[in-house]
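## tool: complex_structure
## caller: assistant
## args:
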Amino acid sequence: MNPPASHLTPTRHWKDIPQQVSPRAMSSEGRRRVLRHAVKTIGLGLTVAALAWGAYGVVSALPDSSGKMPGSVKSAPLHDLVLVTDGVLDQPWLARTLAVPKGASLMELDLFQLRGRLLASGQVRTANLTRNFPATLAVTLAERMPVARLQVQAGPDDRLTLLVARDGVVYEGVGYDPKMVETLPWLAGVTLSRQGGVIQPIAGMAAVSDLLAKAKLEAEHLYAGWRRVSLERLASDGEIAVFTQDGLTVTFGTNEDFFRQLANLDAILDAARAHPEKALREINLAVGGQVPVAFAPAATDPVAAPPSRTPASSPRPLFTGLHRN
Amino acid sequence: MSSRPLFIGAVEIGTSKITTLVGEYNGRELAIIGHGECSSRGVIKGAVVDYKAASECTHSALEQAERDAGERIEVVFLAQTGGHLEGFYNEAAVNVKAADNMIDATDIRTVSDLAKAKELPAGRMVVHHIRRPFRVDGRLVPGTPENLVGQRLDVGYWTVHGQEQRLADNIHVIRGFNLEVRELVLSSLASGHMITTPEDRQHGVLAIDLGAGTTDYVLYRDGSPHTTGVVPVGGSHLTNDLSIGLRLTESQAEKLKLRFGRATVQARDKADKVWLDGNFSIGDRQFPRQAIEQITAARTWELLEVVKKKLGSSFSPETCAAGVVLTGGTAKLAGIAETAAKVFGVPAHLGETPSWVAENLRDPGNNTALGLLYYGVSAQHERAPTARRRGGFLANVKRLFASS
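## result:
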């Protein structure tokens, strides 16, 4: 076995001799060299110090932006959820939808994922999430407003009422006042399609919304009686049929100005009130200046001829030559 | 590679003179750019006995060399001689650790540490550890045994050690000039490196540096130093013998030695006399030439016999095929090679300074200082293998040696 070399006592080497020597033992030239070395060292030290001082001066002269920088803040577990919205959604809905795990710190939150959860509800049009350190998550929402409602068959005995926004998005409304929802007309004549489990927006809703909005704004007395809006002939003929609570069917054309058509309708209805014995059954505002109307058959005259089966061809014009422009 | 040159001072504090050379190493080659010399005072047989006197003349030689070079010396390589220097041989062996018997760096380090670990008497310090070639299972390995396969690794070191106070005295003389002693080199190794060739050293050669106060020798075998030694007898003893034998002053005896001294007796006529001064001045007188030659020859023979005796069994004509090479101031004595050949029984000749050395430095007395510069940097290199791997200063010096 080899002896361990590490246990050997090191022999003393000439390099162990200290090389310090007192100035007294030096020759005059040796002392001069020491002095020269000392002067050089001091000079070098002074130069370095001067450079450092100069650098410090330059740095000090530069505009100090450090004061404007906020100090770093440590992330803490999420404590507050702040909701700012232009609609009806509330804090519990937000907490329920985000479903943030308890004790999760602000920095742990995946804002992109949370935003996705919010947008999954059709009621939310845009969502902005902001971390406010140390423990607040601020959520700003822009909500869709319903312009109509529709009923779908969710199950054999289950009917579900959905709301439709101006952009055609169909969604389950949350937080709306039921009285407000009751005022919305029903949509008819639409076929809903799903893609990836999501109901696709209804095409042409912009025109319907314009009509409804204008009616609500300009002729609320008319709008109050509208119960159903049919889009059955919207795509093919550009016509929107509105069914009122009085059994009247009003057909609007999307190629004509809705304001003018509403005014026409108002005038026709005013004129019709002068003949209460004749109940209006159908008004077609989509054909231009000539407005065909149809009357309901008189219930009190059993011998009277039955009304025509084709209202568009049979009604005779009540107001002819009505031109607003 | 170093871009800034390093100015190295090689200092030999001898008994008769102090020699200083300034070498400039610029990363590729070592050039001698300065030379200073001063008659020695305060030094007897290589040892400083008068610090102040020795310092003054050493510093004078250093200043002269710096003036000659036009540069300031940064570090010093110092030659070391004196009767206090002794050497011994110690060897060690280890069994190779690896299962496949391949020798690794750890084995080499272990065996080297063991071979160098012999304790020294109190007050003694190591000057050199001179490694002899490794042996793997008894087989001589000229280079490193790393990655060779064998079961047993042997190595021996010739350790040169000296008295602490004597070494410190020499170092402090240099420190008095505010210079760091970077390397301490045995005088015999320095001069031997200059006057022998790698082939000589491979075949075996004995280099003898005959100085004024001491005679340093180194025996090379298998390409590396095998034995070194110092005999505290030199040319000054010849002068002293002449002084006593012929009843002369030291200076008169020195004059006669230089003019008529010989290592062999050539004069057959007892009546053949020589003048002390030869200028017919008052006090000038005649001495028998044969007497002068007999005194110097006898002393020289005796001196060489002492060297041979000290070498003992290390020296044999069979292991010293390249013979004896002589240098130093006393080697200028006529017929000394002839005497050496007779004493050692091998061919002998005076060492020649390499041809690339400048003419003004080609004196046997400068060989030690010249060798200091070259041997000193190579010794540093051997102690710093990492520097070699990094291709630094010392690696370049080693390459310089390899090519020379």
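## assistant note: The longest helix of chain B spans residues 289-311. DSSP finds twelve helices and 19 strands in chain B. Handing back to user.
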